[in-house]
Amino acid sequence: MLDMDQGVVEEWLSEFKTLPETAIPSYAAGLKDKASLVSALYRVIQEPQSELLEPVCHQLFEFYRSGDVSLQRFTLQFLPEFIWSYLSICTSRDLHSTGCREALLLGIYNLEIVDKDGQSKVLSFTVPSLSKPSVYHEPSTIGSLTLTEGALAKHGLSRVVYSGPHPQREIFTAQNRFEVLTFLLLCYNAALSYMTSASLQSICHLSTGISICGYPRQLLRKYKGVSNRMPVSSEFLVQLITSLYYALYNGEWDMASKALDDVLYRAQLELYPEPLLVGNAIKSSLPGGALKSNKEGTRCIQVEITPTSSRISRNAVTSLSIRGHRWKRNGKQHNKIKE
User: Fold this and answer.
1) Of the candidates 208, 295, 211, which has an alpha carbon nearest to the alpha carbon of residue 249?
2) Counting C-beta atoms within 10 Å of the first and last residue's C-beta, which end of the chain has fewer, N or C?
3) Does the pLDDT value for residue 298 go beyond 50?
4) In angstroms, rounded to a whole number, what is the distance separating the alpha carbons of residues 271 and 222?
5) What's the start-to-end Cα distance of the chain, in Å?
6) What is the DSSP letter of 125?
7) Is 295 within 8 Å of 251 (Cβ atoms)?
8) Does residue 324 sit in helix, strand or coil?
9) Per-residue pLDDT tens digits for 175-207
10) Which residues neighbour 311 within 8 Å (Cβ) at sequence distance 6 or greater?
11) Residues 6+ apart with CB under 8 A from 38
């Protein structure tokens, strides 16, 4: 690690401790503009035996525990890198080096599964209905299917999926590891539109690494680093695909498209139907060529939106057309009088 990077991180560690509470909001808002700090923190996380890793993890946890949304998003951008470094160390059996990484990941998880009063959260997701318009479709364009869905909607048969309550975890085990990591990725995906380009590249790197390490594709890609296979769950791959879908349309087309192929490759090997379904659906909807996207501009998934109301006919009667018609009629009557 360069001395300059070390100095930037050490200054950041000491600066936050001396801030009064009234100055935290303005400090948090300016963190996103400190590119040198972000790159230096990535190097600390990537270095297995960095002396700064423990204080960095502690401060990032304090950021998340503060409750300030900007500080929480600042911490979340490093989540894919922490997950990758943690899983890489786990495969090497060097569990003594995972202490502070594991503590940070578990700390964020335990904070997210409860509300402000300390009660367990239950997340709910309403499955979209074809009878109600969205940015992806207009019910009137579906045809006879609209009547069926509309009849069902009137009876209140909308489907709601619940997640939780989730149990608190004190340590990682082989049984709960991917349950915790999947939930953390769910929190990361909820803030995707605020993630930096470096964070999107990190999620692509995580997706490729966990999908091909230890398999023949690693040799074809000449992918260096971890050579052992990493266990993975179907739900975890689905969350990775969700992140990649956003990255595809927000400046990381090349990396995200390769990572999507890698995740589908791993899903085929594991015979996981959910990531295969979601991943192939996204892949089938992609345009033929790479998309040009402004990395500093508005971040969104591009969709073609149909108008929610029927278009006004060219022959529609308006106040302006009535006045025009009246003027024409008065003009014709005036000409007849002259004749």
Assistant:
1) 295
2) C
3) no
4) 25
5) 97
6) E
7) yes
8) helix
9) 999 999 999 999 999 999 999 999 999 999 999
10) none
11) 77, 196, 198
